[in-house]
Design goal:
With 210 residues, this protein is mainly α. The chain is built from seven helices and five strands; from the N terminus they run H-H-H-E-H-E-E-H-H-E-E-H. The longest helix is centred in the N-terminal third of the chain and has 20 residues. The radius of gyration is 18 Å and the shape is globular. It starts with 15 loop residues before the first helix and ends with a helix.
Length: 210
C-alpha cells in the first residue's frame, strides 16, 4: 500500500486508512502478545500505550512533531487506532480536534525509495520534516510513511530488549511445543527474537506489497 497511488495503472487511491489501521494493529498485537502478555483481552489500551511509549522512536521526531511518548501513544490509541478499527474512522461524539491521516505528496513510493526507508536505522532524510504526529491548523495529523518507519523501529527496539524477549519466550514457550507432550517440534534456534522479527516483517510486507 505504500506504493499507492499508482495512476499509471489507474489506482488513484492511497488507502491511507487501511494502511494506518494495519500498522496500528501491529503495535496492538505486539503489545498484548509479546510486551505484556497474556493476550486475554484485558487492559489492551494500557498495554498499547505503554508499549508505544517505551519503544516507538519518539526521540527521532522533528521539532514540530509530537515528541512526548506519553502524549503520542495516547493520541495513536484514542485518536486513531480505536476510531479506525471500531468505527470506520468515525467518532461520536466528534473529537474536539479533527484527526487526519496524511501521505507524502505525489504518487506512491518507488521500490528503491521503499527499500531505502526500510533499511534506514536512523530517521531517513525523506522523513526529516515529516512527523508521525503533528497538531497544526486546528487538526491532528498522522503520516502513514512516518508511521511505517516508526513501527519498524518499534520492532527493532522491542526485540533488542533482552528482558522483554525473555518474558515473551516464557509466555509463548508452551504454545511452541507439540501438544501436551512438551516435546518441541523445532529446535530452540532461531531465537524467539528472530522469529518475532520475521513475523513482524511478514505483516509489514503485506502492507508494502499490497
Amino acid at each position: 500500500m505504500l506504493r499507492l497511488p499508482r495512476p499509471e495503472v489507474h489506482i488513484t487511491e492511497g488507502c491511507n486508512f487501511a494502511l494506518s489501521a494495519v500498522l496500528l494493529n501491529a503495535i496492538s498485537g505486539l503489545s498484548v502478545v509479546l510486551y505484556a502478555p497474556p493476550a486475554d483481552g484485558k487492559n489492551t489500551g494500557r498495554k498499547f500505550m505503554q508499549a508505544a511509549r517505551a519503544f516507538y522512536p519518539w526521540d527521532t521526531e522533528p521539532a514540530d512533531a509530537v515528541r512526548s511518548g506519553t502524549i503520542g501513544s495516547r493520541i495513536l490509541y484514542t485518536g486513531f487506532r480505536n476510531g479506525l478499527v471500531h468505527g470506520l474512522g468515525f467518532q461520536d461524539p466528534e473529537p474536539l480536534i479533527p484527526t487526519v491521516v496524511t501521505r507524502m505528496p505525489g504518487v506512491g513510493m518507488s521500490q528503491v525509495a521503499l527499500r531505502a526507508l526500510e533499511e534506514a536505522t536512523e530517521r531517513p532524510a525523506s522523513l526529516q520534516a515529516v512527523p508521525t504526529l503533528r497538531t497544526s491548523a486546528g487538526r491532528t495529523e498522522l503520516n502513514a510513511e512516518a508511521l511505517y518507519w516508526g513501527v519498524r523501529q518499534f520492532v527493532f527496539r522491542f526485540t533488542a530488549d533482552a528482558a522483554r524477549v525473555a518474558a515473551a519466550e516464557a509466555y509463548l514457550g508452551p504454545m511452541l511445543r507439540n501438544g501436551a507432550t512438551g516435546v518441541r517440534t523445532q529446535p530452540r534456534t532461531p531465537s524467539l527474537w528472530s522469529r518475532c522479527r520475521r513475523t513482524c516483517w511478514s505483516i509489514l510486507d503485506v502492507i508494502k506489497d499490497f
